[in-house]
Amino acid sequence: MKMNRYEEIWLMLSGAMLVIFMVITGYQTFALGMGPPSNKETIDPEKVDETAPFDKPGVYQTGDHEYEVVMTLEVFNFNPGKIEIPAGSTVTFIMTSKDVVHGFQVVDTNLNAMVMPGHIQRATQKFSKPGEYLVLCNEYCGTGHQHMSTVITVK
Ligand code: CUA
């Protein structure tokens, strides 16, 4: 059976495109280390309360205008529930979940992280403007999901 010339050309073109995309993706993942972050920092989700730093959730000052918030998430709470920081602070959130996948989205910022059990999630954000920043869980985590929220107060 003889194939139409144009059909052959298009088949070859699409095959070549597939190969090119695979090479580009492979190069980015393995040579440039741009693959999705996985298994970088892990934790036993059953032992979060005994594992540092999560045995002491809270707000810690680490430098001039620098803070760390060690946070655990569980149905349907953020712990610490009350976060207050001075305006102009850069805050690094270190988070893990004690049960299911939760979200950590801070309204009016670019902060939006997925917090998974067994993994430690870090996210840094500078808070320049004073105000109350609403924090929402944006991953469906159970019947109380829509009530899972807290507030970051920047003064
Ligand atoms: Cu936690 Cu939805």
UniProtKB/TrEMBL annotation:
The keyword Oxidoreductase does not apply. Keywords: Copper, Membrane, Metal-binding, Transmembrane, Transmembrane helix. SUPFAM superfamilies: Cupredoxins. The chain crosses the membrane at residues 9-30. Its main location: other. Residues 49-155 form the Cytochrome oxidase subunit II copper A binding domain. It catalyses: 4 Fe(II)-[cytochrome c] + O2 + 8 H(+)(in) = 4 Fe(III)-[cytochrome c] + 2 H2O + 4 H(+)(out). InterPro entries: Ba3_CcO_II_C, CcO_II-like_C, Copper_CuA, Cupredoxin, NosZ/Cyto_c_oxidase_sub2. The keyword NAD does not apply. It is found in: Cell envelope. PANTHER family: CYTOCHROME C OXIDASE SUBUNIT II (PTHR42838), NITROUS-OXIDE REDUCTASE (PTHR42838:SF2). Subunits I and II form the functional core of the enzyme complex. Electrons originating in cytochrome c are transferred via heme a and Cu(A) to the binuclear center formed by heme a3 and Cu(B). This is Cytochrome aa3 subunit 2. It comes from Sporosarcina quadrami.
